[in-house]
Amino acid sequence: MSGERRNIAWRISFYFAALFLVPGVHLPFWSVWLQSRGLSAPEISAVLSSAILIRLVAGPTAAHLVDRSGARRQAIIILSWASCAVFAAFWWTHGFWPIFLLGILHAAIWSPITPFSENVALLAASRYGLQYGRLRLWGSVSFLIAAYLAGLWLKGRDDDWIFALLLAGLLALSLASHLLPDLRLPLDRPKLAGAPVLQLLRNRLFLAFLGANACLQASHAMLYTFGTLQWREAGLSDAQIGFLWAEGVLAEVILFAVGQRVAQRTGGVGLMALAAMGGILRWGLTGPMDSFEWLVLLNLLHAATFGCAHLGAMRLLADGVAPDASATAQTLYTGANATVLATATLAIGPLFPLAGGLTYLAMLPFSLAGGACVLLLWRHRQGLRFTA
After folding, report:
1. Is this model's pTM higher than 0.85 or not?
2. Which of 61, 155, 281, 295 is most deeply packed, by most CB within 10 A?
């Protein structure tokens, strides 16, 4: 690897490691912090689903500006520091409505950061001959470490430490964002005719792609929203819970490390099909099982349900979308995921207090629907393109 390629690779990898410190604590423990502030299960699901749903507006709006200007790095830096500043206000916020409204504001600022980051990584992979999976895996490693160490640290401590850990993660991300390379498209490159968002949304295969990934990712709604609370109710310690989150992501890391070879054999559509099959198995068995030993085995399927779906999606976006529509495609992908995930999250709010761990069975239809959309893509899997 040349010096320039090596430099770009470590800078993006380090940035991903900083980026995923935040969800490494947020996904397992944010609902616990909300509960400590007196919010009920339906209120928690409302806060989380509204934060997810705001991506529909914030993401595409920001992406249109970024695709036109090309200023991806600058946008990430501004959004990261703004996210850090707004999140700090949660410390003084109490009650459902203040937390709900502040959560929407923070989500609007936060939501474009991840798709823009993925977009930078895909552009770098294409321009410098890097493997996206090997850049992205450092984010998963960071998530793994953050989830596990947070579980150990929080054992016996006040839940306000969750807020402190998240704020520290956002500060680390803001500093690391300055390391990103400033990747811009050549000025003399022919531009797409018309708005990229309209071209993409008129393509029925792109809509099938969005539907497949949205359903596959929404199947994680129960895990993301009430997974930690349900495991606590089942008698698991915070250390065990942290291990389960970290262990699932470790399986994902291994997939990302060898993902290039897997993708060459299966293709992006094949990876998504593996995600659908993994979801049917995972959510069908996780519902009735709450012993730590069984959960350790089932969580290995995270490599399929999340890892295969995400890696397959990134491969299809890299191969099937013109670079000057890439940020828009990335945020439409994220926005579609957010819409269905928010719907699923809101729906399980009233269900979880009644069904507990059996709520996982309600995730099965999402894996089945995702698989049905993948079948629509299967006939066109060779040379699949979403833009001209």
Report:
1. no
2. 295
